[in-house]
Specification:
GO molecular function, one term: acyltransferase activity, transferring groups other than amino-acyl groups
Keywords: Acyltransferase, Transferase
Helix content: 25-40%
InterPro entries: Acyl_CoA_acyltransferase, Bact_Acetyltransf, GNAT_dom
CATH topology of the largest domain: Aminopeptidase
Strand content: 25-35%
Organism: Halogranum amylolyticum
Largest sheet: 13 strands, mixed
Number of domains: 2
Number of strands: 15
Shape: elongated
Number of helices: 9
CATH class of the largest domain: Alpha Beta
Structural class: alpha+beta
Domain N-acetyltransferase: 4-154
Radius of gyration: 20 Å
Distance between the termini: 29 Å
Order of helices and strands: EHHEEEHEHEEHHEEHEEEHEHEE
Length: 307
């Protein structure tokens, strides 16, 4: 009978982890990121990040990572179970360990992201104590140095904050935007983040007799495509607007900005609903085929008390 033990991941686990994760998305014509970044995860583990595995004798049966994003927010990612050990309740067991650790670091909420087509992942998240939070989609304007917004675009951080605080987009997204440090994570937008973006010329506020929308560039990064060629991405933490005209001007500003940083491609987080997606489509901007779901776990529950 196999004995399972949840423990902190070690560099020596790499071969076993790669062996059961390299074909994770093979049926979706995609590849799992974990084989590429496992060593980076281990090297980055510390007070704000911890990677866990389930040891099964000489094998590894599961993996997950927890990251502290702010004083009260944590992020769970990379939950994978070795197919040889499915049905043993390991996803719940390892998630509990990761979220208890996050609670010990002071977090009161942990979130994760699940592809909308990943029904098993959604079910596993619910079993692990996560509840539905929000959903989003990617808008992908083409970088264009000649793009010209029809409405004025400024960079007043407090105007963007006031707009966000009262916006339908904030309500739909539960106040969440892409995190500035952890890729693929979302965290609560703060006034300070907008001021930082304005100071660094990354904030775009659409105005026309009042504030009509905003976005800000989160980061620029390089990633190889399926052919192995490096592609430069400009990532925008959120897109929010009042109406179609504001949407068009906002995405024109982002297309121009993306070109200014020599980006090949872009992605902008937008709320998932017919309103938001159809505005983007009517603006002749590409949209991802499917939404992504964000789940949230209340870490003040007894389940996550480490005592």
């Amino acid at each position: 009978m196999t004995t399972f033990e949840v423990r902190r991941a070690r560099p020596a686990d790499e071969a076993a982890v790669v062996a059961f994760t390299e074909e994770t998305w093979s049926d979706r014509e995609g590849s799992d990121y974990i084989p590429r970044i496992f060593q980076q995860w281990i090297e980055g583990d510390g007070d704000d990040q911890r990677t866990f595995v389930v040891e099964a004798g000489d094998d590894v049966a599961a993996i997950v990572q927890a990251v502290v994003l702010s004083e009260h927010e944590a992020w769970a990612q990379g939950m994978r179970v070795n197919p040889d050990y499915r049905g043993e309740g390991l996803s719940t067991r390892i998630n509990d360990a990761a979220l208890r650790w996050a609670r010990e670091q002071g977090a009161t909420v942990a979130r994760n992201m699940v592809f909308s087509w990943n029904v098993a992942g959604l079910g596993g998240s619910r079993a692990a104590g996560f509840d539905p939070c929000t959903e989003f989609r990617w808008a992908m304007p083409t970088p264009d140095p000649a793009a010209t917004p029809t409405l004025a675009v400024g960079d007043e951080a407090d105007a963007a904050w006031a707009f966000w605080s009262a916006s339908d987009a904030r309500d739909d997204l539960r106040g969440l935007t892409l995190d500035g440090e952890e890729s693929w994570a979302v965290s609560e937008l703060t006034r300070e983040k907008l001021h930082d973006a304005a100071d660094e010329d990354r904030l775009f506020v659409v105005t026309d007799d009042g504030t009509r929308g905003f976005s800000y560039r989160n980061r620029v990064y390089d990633r190889p495509n399926d052919e192995g060629d490096e592609v430069t991405w400009a990532e925008y933490a959120v897109g929010a607007w009042t109406d179609l005209d504001a949407c068009r001007s906002l995405f024109s500003a982002l297309a121009r900005d993306a070109a200014s940083v020599d980006a090949d491609r872009t992605r902008v987080l937008i709320p998932e609903s017919a309103r938001w997606v159809s505005d983007v489509a009517a603006s002749r901007v590409a949209v991802s085929d499917e939404p992504d779901f964000v789940m949230a776990a209340d870490l003040t529950r007894d389940r996550f008390d480490g005592d």
